[in-house]
Amino acid sequence: MATAKPLPEALAAASFTIGEARLHGLSPWRAKAADIHVPSRGIRVPAGREQPLLARARPYTRLGTADTVSFDSAADIHRFKLPGDPVNAGSAPSARLLHLTRNGSAAPRRKGVVGHRSELAPTEIVILQGVPVTSIPRTLLDLAGTGTLSRDDIVVIVDDLICEHSRARYPRAARIPLRELLRYAEQKRPVAGLPLLRSALQLVRVGADSPPETRLRLLFGRSALPAFEANYVLMDSLGTPLWVDLACPEYRLAVEYDGAHHLTPAQQQLDALRRERTADAGWRQLVINKVDVRNGEDWVLTRVRLALRAQGWTG
After folding, report:
1. Predicted confidence (pLDDT) per residue in 61-72, tens digit
2. What is the CATH number of the domain that holds 266?
3. Is 272 part of a structural domain of the chain?
């Protein structure tokens, strides 16, 4: 049995179209060899080749139609903190299919693709590594219109997108300014998902470093507790800033969410120092972790209420 010749370098790294194969001199026979996978008509993938979603999606947008990567696929590319993943950073099961939106005509129909039809304004499409993808605001709107995300889910996503702070060890810059999202939602004509998106944007806050922090803040906000502030800067006894995940200044209670990285010996030493600095500043610290969250909202709220009462709250 004859051995297939190696693929040209330009085709060996990622998915390609049949048209691109012809341009590089690949014969129809070679394009059907065992070392090439056929995920959909007109698309070829070097077998066993791991590639990012953008590279996998690129040839689907080069088939002669105005298709844009959208919905769950765009959310994956924009690194949205979607629910359903153990670390809240993965994608819904449907994201294993490629979501494409065709502008103003029939939705794409092909194997491995979830097709959508919509009117996309030029400003709602961004080009990433040569691939058209719905913008962050448009992707948020599309997901809000699916009915699969709650308002809290959307707040979690946006909190992460707009997070920025100057913490000494872990500074962050916003991936999109909140004002840009607000302006988009205000100017957009009524479509499915817009009321939910607008409602969620009223609840977002700059500074939340993780989905659990956002969900705790939202839980506190609807539970008749005193006001809590995200990413609060507390000055310790030496006048050095100490950032608190969620703080109730009125009753001097600092609530920290400790994820899995807090289990390392080095982080535990830092956490012990944080507790000392918080206490020296005259504040009480309450640590919530994933075990508390797994025990349910009532458990978490009971712990917070007890800590507040120890600080003088009478609620």
Report:
1. 999 888 999 999
2. 3.40.960.10
3. yes
Q: What is the pLDDT of residue 168?
A: 62
For residue 156, the model assigns a pLDDT of 98
Tell me which residue of 299, 304, 273 sits closest to 287, measured CA to CA: 304
pTM exceeds 0.85: yes
Task: Please state the domain count of the chain.
Answer: 3
The last residue of one of the domains, among 201, 231, 246, is 201
Q: State pLDDT tens for residues 251-265.
A: 999 999 987 454 556
Could you tell me if 112 and 215 lie in one domain?
A: no
| 1 lies in some domain | no
pLDDT surpassing 70 at residue 240: yes
- At 267 the pLDDT is 60
Please report how many Cα atoms fall inside a 13 Å half-sphere around the Cα of residue 17, on the Cβ side.
Answer: 11
Contact 158/79 with Cβ under 8 angstroms?
no
Q: What is the signed CA dihedral for 32, 34, 40, 46, rounded to 10 degrees?
A: -110
Q: How many CA atoms lie within 13 A of 19 on its CB side?
A: 6
Round to whole Å and give the CA distance between 105 and 64. 13
Cβ proximity of 97 and 69 under 8 Å: no
Q: How far is CA 246 from CA 256, 303, 315, in A?
A: 6, 14, 19
**Which domain-ending residue is among 171, 201, 231?**
201
Q: Which residues of 38-71 are buried (b: 16+ CB within 10 A; e: fewer)?
A: ebbebbbbbeebeeebbbbbbbbbbbeeebbbbb
Give the model confidence (pLDDT) of 163-186 as tens digits. Answer: 998 876 778 899 999 999 999 999
**CA 73/CA 189 separation, integer angstroms:** 24
Neighbours of 138 (CB within 10 A): 24
Residue 105 confidence (pLDDT): 76
